[in-house]
Amino acid sequence: MIMRKKKDKRKKQIFILILIAVIAVFAAAVIYNRYLQNKTEGGEATDSGIDFPYTSEDGNLQITALIQFTGPNVDAENADGEDIAGLQVRNISDQYLDEAEVKVRIDDETEYSFLVRDLPTGSETVAFELAGQSYDGQAVCREIECTTQMSDISMREDAVQITADGSKLIITNITEQQIDNAVVIYRCTTGDSYIGGLSYEIPVSGLAGGESFEYEDSKCLLGTPEAVGVEID
Questions:
Q1: Beta strands in 74-140 (DSSP E)
Q2: Which of 114, 153, 167, 225 has the fewest CB atoms inside 10 Å of its own CB, making it the most exposed?
Q3: Strand 194-204 relative to strand 124-128: parallel, antiparallel, unpaired?
Q4: Which whole-number Å values give the CA distances from 162 to 35, 89, 151, 221, 229, in the listed order?
């Protein structure tokens, strides 16, 4: 009887050891899978291409999608196009984006070029391919190159007040001094996102203290004008 109890006890110990080993292997597999998931999250390159959202190496921009657009390409002199490649770009830095050049390569080695100017922190725009190249919506993104230039441009709310009225921007000098050699930078917006990679400028000169003037926009074929920055010499 005593020997049988010892054998049973030994079998039980072996079973426990095997169970522990199985659990350890399972846990290692789970940890490894999580490691692989974390490695590919945030836009890292994988065997199947680049996942979106993709964050630029300098951490300033987040590219959320490569899309198609049919209509006037506002980044190519309003040339009409079908299935134009578009890039959704967000400024995730704490600075004003002065300019960004983005190149995207897909499966068949096609290279798309995008230019984004004057994008305030936290805002998003859809930039269009500068040559109007099309995108089939299926090809995998293989590589993204991005260079950015940041600045400290602001709305200069201490000097001017800018309001929008449809296609008009109303610029008011709220100081007592005349404003000369100033520029109001604006973009076209749908309310949720800016449209196009380019921005536009309104020169301001000889605007007396307390006075206003209205600027009638002719650039925003898509959306309405919205001021994003002011530079005053």
A1: 79-91, 96-106, 111-119, 124-128
A2: 167
A3: parallel
A4: 49, 25, 21, 21, 10
Share of the chain above pLDDT 70, in %: 79
Average pLDDT of 57-67?
97
CA atoms of 203 and 182, how far apart (whole Å): 6
215: pLDDT strictly greater than 60:
yes
Starting at the earlier edge strand, list the strands of the sheet with 111-119: 111-119, 96-106, 141-151
Pairing status of strand 168-173 against strand 124-128: unpaired
Q: Please name the helix (run of DSSP H) or strand (run of DSSP E) that holds residue 48, with its range, or none.
A: none
Task: Output the six-digit token pair for 123.
Answer: 């805002």
The closest of 181, 169, 182 to 212, measured between CA atoms, is 169
State the burial class of residue 54 (Cβ atoms within 10 Å of its Cβ: 0-12, 13-18, 19+): buried
| pLDDT score for 219 | 95
Count of CB atoms situated within 10 Å of the CB of 29: 10
**Beta-bridge partners for 175:** none
| pTM of the predicted protein model | 0.79
